[in-house]
Amino acid sequence: MDFAAINPLIFFSTMVAASIPVLLAALGELVVEKSGVLNLGVEGMMIIGAVCGFITIYNTGSPLFGVLASIVAGGLLALIFGILTQVLHSNQVATGLALTLFGLGLSALIGQPFAGIKPPTFPKPDFGFLSDLPVLGQLLFKYDYLVYLAFILVVGVSYFLNRTRAGLILRSIGENHDAAHALGYNVVRVRLAAIMFGGGCAGLGGGYLAMIRVPQWTEGMTAGVGWIALALVVFASWRPYRVILGAFLFGGVTLLQLNLQAVGIKINPAYLSMAPYIITIVALVVISGSSNRLSTLAPGSLGRLFYKTM
Amino acid sequence: MTRKIFKGFAILTSLLFTFSLAQAEPKKVGFIYVGPVGDFGWSYEHDQGRLAVEEAFGDQVETSYVESVPEGADAERVLTQMALAGNELIFTTSFGYMDPTINVAAKFPNVKFEHATGYKRADNVSTYSARFYEGRAVIGHIAGKMTKTNQIGYIASFPIPEVIRGINSAYLHAKKANPDVEFKIVWVFTWFDPAKEADAAQTLIEQGVDVIMQHTDSTAPMTIAEEKGIFAFGQASDMMEFGPTARLSSIIDNWAPYYVARAQALLDGTWESVDVWDGISTGMVEIGEFSDRIPEDVRAEAQAMADSISDGSYHPFTGPINRQDGSAWLGDGEVADDGTLLGMNFYIEGLSGSIPN
């Protein structure tokens, strides 16, 4: 009954898989916030992605279509948010919350006939002898396709934001939409694209939950992951690679407390359950401790409405 | 004059109409669930009970339900609304609804409440529960016989007497069937969170467990057990379709007869506050069909145990049983009384770890 009973390799690989939904959702939201939009509807987009992905993979038997359906469903829901906030100038916070409630309700409705059905198994890539390597095999070559896709996406987003012209435009719009507009950039169009990307990522995160991790459809199965994703973006101080760190932390702590219990180590699970949230609060306090640093980290126009001027 | 007659006639008809409406007005019965009715576990079975009431009384009774209501302040709000909406009998189907039920019941003395698995009663609040520990004894025996690694995983929800009783009963009988058996218990502090329950199942399997029992409401642990090729038991509901090969048996909560009886009492005007705790004998606890993967002799033993519990010749908590710390709880042949069982807050000897608080 000690720590030795927890195999660190297996623990790590389970943690990686467990952190994928929150990682994807947070990554998408990060891009949205970088463009200056706060979308609190992550939870709603995730659950719509989950139910649509599940229904599609069940009906077509094709994991690829399931993945695509998750992305498209999340993206479409995000588009509603985008049109409401960017074109019709509705309040972002209220609209985002409404999106979550709408997503939860709608998914329950369309998922009703699909509760209690087993989806086809999601395939894993075959790395041949690589997955049999002693340590590396377990650490790197035992995951399903979406895990690899998620990490590629993190690298891609980081490259896009920091190394490309389009990323620079997106960031400039997030920092000061009036200035970007004055320079001739189409603020609304860029933001709509960012919002849809965020929705697609959230939808895929939800799809991962329903198609791979649980895998089945149940109402309300995201159980607050979308909200954790929102906290994670702040925790990561809007940097893509830190999102990985944060996702591992959130996923890892949950798993760690289950593991500790299973091996019989006496620690109140409540402490570990609240640990990620405490760390987020501490991170927020540290970030906002110096006003200079906060102003450089959070996008300047985050959550502000943009009215096009002539 | 004609107008007066007409007016009188109108009043008369409207009176008649109201009267006939009052005659045909169905009695309203409300249900409040902690999870979605589509959880295929706990809330699902309560809803099956509600449907049985609809079936039995047709137009005489009108039922309604509110699902996924968090325990606590939200429950109190929902219950108040249900009482205001004219429900005369309200079933509150989760342990955590206990205080909200008592509070709302005090405000609506004419509305009758039935609280599942609690222990606080009032003139208009009954409590009812099932002796799930009887079922746990049977599946505990099967689990003890079926494990190869001698490690049985148990996904527990909240450290309340009902759950602790289940763990003790399952462990006691698994240990009798297989002295080498060990329990790994994980508390997830939720009734319904498929992702967390799946993680818990995964973790237990990584720790070498090859049979999983659960006291949570979703079918996720069963799905994971099926995927990983280990054994599991249906909880609250049969869950056969979630683990066609993994599922060994199940504990099914059958609330329908009780709900129908209570609705009947409401219609007859004979309803009064009661405290019901039924088990296998009345069918409130059903043992699901045994899987073919259980050897025939084990199936026979399990069936014999269920039968002896049902006819009262065997009580799952029959001494000698010690508490976890080694102190004596029940002497040789002594049977646990309901009071101790209802307040059970200790592990029995042999279980490791401690109950979180």
Please, could you describe this protein's structure?
The complex is a heterodimer of chains A (310) and B (357). With 310 residues, chain A is mainly α. Chain A has 14 helices and no strands. In chain A, helix 3 (42-60) packs antiparallel against helix 4 (63-87) and helix 3 packs across helix 10 (187-213). The model of chain A has no long low-confidence stretch (mean pLDDT 88). The longest helix of chain B is centred in the first third of the chain and has 23 residues, at 2-24. In chain B, 51% of the residues are buried. Chain B is α/β, with parallel strands linked by helices and 357 residues long. The radius of gyration of chain B is 23 Å and the shape is globular. In chain B, a hairpin with a 5-residue loop joins strand 13 (321-322) and strand 14 (328-330). The mean pLDDT of chain B is 89. Chain B contains 11 helices and 14 strands. The chains are: A mainly alpha (310), B alpha/beta (357). The interface between A and B is large, with 42 and 39 residues.
